[in-house]
Write a structure and sequence with these properties.
homodimer; Four Helix Bundle (Hemerythrin (Met), subunit A); 11 helices; DNA-binding; transcription regulation (chains A, B); Tscrpt_reg_HTH_GntR (chains A, B)
Chain lengths: 251, 251
DNA sequence: TATTCTGAAGTTGTCAGACAACTTTGCGAA
DNA sequence: TTCGCAAAGTTGTCTGACAACTTCAGAATA
């Protein structure tokens, strides 16, 4: 381990060691199965106790990056970040985040949400519809009161995903919703209420709901697509970047 | 902590403790900021040493689920899995993994891959096509040699996602591909070659490629859908579970 | 009586040593 | 040359001690 990471002494040693180890694995392009230095060597190199090394390795094990075998050693299990999908930035346009990047994330969202709406139309149960109605009702109340409904907006979309009867679609929608909560704030802010953005979004929600309630998969897909296009516009994004008129022509 | 998790003694204590703590946080619906029991209490409750508890907490810290303050305690930082999307199991049918669950993951994949194929048809560049051709050529070579092409199969799908010119779609495809590498092995194994599974998969790949090369978005979507239906069947999954004949009727 | 200050108790962070359980290596015997 | 066994090496867990920080309770002061 001639090119081993050189340690520093920040407040949380195990996190820092984990970070440096992860970086070193990436830089060395260690393949799956490559053995890491022993705990003893790492203690010497980082100048920390065995407990700190073990906690750092535990962190990397939680990330799926490293695996260990008692009596044998620690091994690279996968490249860092292998076992999960993350979005890289906050999802509100700003001077530091390229608008195109957010638009691209919107498009990924579009792939999943239009498909989910379609399937929800085919598979929704009365309980699913009740759940959507409840979220809609709460957004209606927020409209009347001029108050915040970011959480209800999200709940509405998760309820649609739940109506697909596919828990993985629901989980993915919940994940994306968490990343998008910031982007819903301008819709439901005081300014969003005054400018009519909230009212417009709610009208789009109602159209999606109606299509799903009617069991009309095509209309549900089209309504979900239209909603996303308008949502992007409300954020100042250009949905035409997603493709050409052909895809938009479905609405 | 009257309703604390009851421990067992599996081989890797810290992983098991972390899992049980995470589950308990979810079941109790502990909000962000809620304090966890002290290390001392957890040691007593789980019947393990302080080192094991600390390693388990380190795992949860790596997941972003828990944060700690020296002298104060451990706190819920976010619901488990908050900042990332993970699939929960390996993706090969087995006695311990419900087939329905894998089928559901396939459907999520279907949402993204059919949309990606559509967009690839509209946006692909000559370089994109060359990249797909290269992966196809390598799979052809593997067909001729009876050898493994799991990596090339994956590279083909990632190349399609890259042709959407949307890096997030590409990254998601790469993530899903990693989770699915096990599921491609039966196609490209010796048995897969002998039984014709590899040849069939490759024919499907060629159809997707042709549609994308022609710029025919509808055909690309249909070819991608058909490929996924057949891939599911090759794995013994029932693609009819995904919905009814209406969605399949698009092929 | 209310507020502030101080010290003790409590809690996490790190270090060190010991032993258990497992793996790898090296040497001698067949 | 191969196999078996013991020693050495390595990870997994436990225990104890001390450092660094936080919280709480009681005493002192206004």
């Amino acid at each position: 381990m001639s090119a081993a990471p050189i340690p520093e002494r920040p407040p949380d040693l195990s996190a820092a060691v984990a970070r440096q180890l992860e970086q070193w694995i990436s830089e060395q392009q260690l393949p799956k199965g490559a053995q890491l230095p022993t705990e003893k060597l790492l203690c010497e190199k980082f100048g920390v106790s065995r407990a700190v090394i073990r906690e750092a390795i535990s962190r990397l094990k939680a990330d799926g990056c490293v695996t260990t075998r008692q009596g044998s050693g620690a091994y690279v299990a996968a490249p860092p970040g292998h076992g999960s999908f993350r979005l890289l930035h906050g999802l509100l346009p700003s001077a530091t985040i390229p608008t195109d990047e957010i638009s691209d994330v919107f498009e990924l969202r579009c792939l999943v949400e239009t498909g989910a709406a379609e399937r929800a139309a085919l598979r929704r149960t009365p309980a699913d519809l009740a759940r959507m109605r409840e979220a809609l009702a709460r957004m209606d109340e927020a409209l009347a009161a001029g108050s915040d409904a970011v959480g209800d907006d999200d709940a509405f979309h998760v309820a649609i995903a739940a109506a697909t009867q596919n828990p993985h679609i629901e989980r993915f929608q919940a994940f994306m919703g968490r990343q998008f909560s910031d982007s819903r704030a301008p819709t439901w802010s005081g300014e969003g209420h005054r400018s009519g953005r909230a009212r417009q979004a709610q009208a789009e929600h109602a159209r999606i709901f109606d299509a799903i309630a009617c069991g009309d998969a095509d209309a549900a897909r089209a309504a979900a697509q239209a909603h996303l296009v308008c949502a992007a516009r409300r954020l100042g994004l250009d949905p035409l970047r997603w493709g050409n008129e052909r895809l938009e022509g479905t609405q």
